[in-house]
Amino acid sequence: MNSSLQQLFLYNNELGKFEKNIFHIKEGLKMNNSIKLLDLSKNNLGRNQKNLYYIMEILKYNTSIINLNLSKNLLGRDNKNIIYIKKGLQINNTIRILNLSHNNIGGNVKIVHFLKECLLINKSKIIFDISQNSLRDVDKIFIGELYNIIYE
Fold first, then answer.
1. Using CA atoms, how far apart are residues 59 and 75, in angstroms rounded to an integer?
2. Residue 97 confidence (pLDDT)
3. Taking 90 as the threshold, does the pLDDT of residue 50 lie above it?
4. What strand order describes the sheet that includes 37-39?
5. Which helix (H) or strand (E) holds 8?
């Protein structure tokens, strides 16, 4: 295990194409306590729920990650994708930056509700990027509630 590796950028590698890709990353990161930044953006992880299950497992076993980038992964495709992220955050309270931008989550009340729960569950202060998600009128209440959670 390389204990000096602190940032792992795997942007735009089509990792979501085969679930074994994320499985192997999960196995490699289970015992690594030096990674601080994990960038899995633009990998179409939302294509298969198993990918997000493995992300949950990474969060379960690796408590050194403070910055997780899951942007541009089609997470809005299925409600269960966000459920796995929520479960991961229930276990891991070291995440400080969570990027879920460009995932088409806007307008889906169930997903928006799960995102709110993510913040309520993880009591640490999180920089939570949900930009470029086509947030709609139905999401305005959620935005107000997020603001209250963050600034309480």
1. 17
2. 93
3. yes
4. 7-9, 37-39, 67-69, 97-99, 127-129
5. strand 7-9
Closest CA to 54 of 94, 93, 81, 90: 81
Assign 7 to helix, strand or coil: strand
Burial 24-56 (b: 16+ CB within 10 A, else e): ebbeebeebeebeebbbbbbbbbbbbbbbbbbb
- Alpha carbon distance 8, 69 (integer Å): 11
For residues 20 and 110, the model is more confident at 20
3-state class of 61 per DSSP? helix
Domains identified in the chain and CATH numbers: 7-150 (3.80.10.10)
What integer best gives the mean pLDDT of the chain?
A: 86
pLDDT (mean) for 30-36: 90
Q: What is the mean pLDDT of residues 96-123?
A: 79
Separation in Å, CA 34 to CA 28, 52, 66, 91, 137: 12, 22, 10, 18, 41
Tokens of 139: 């999401």
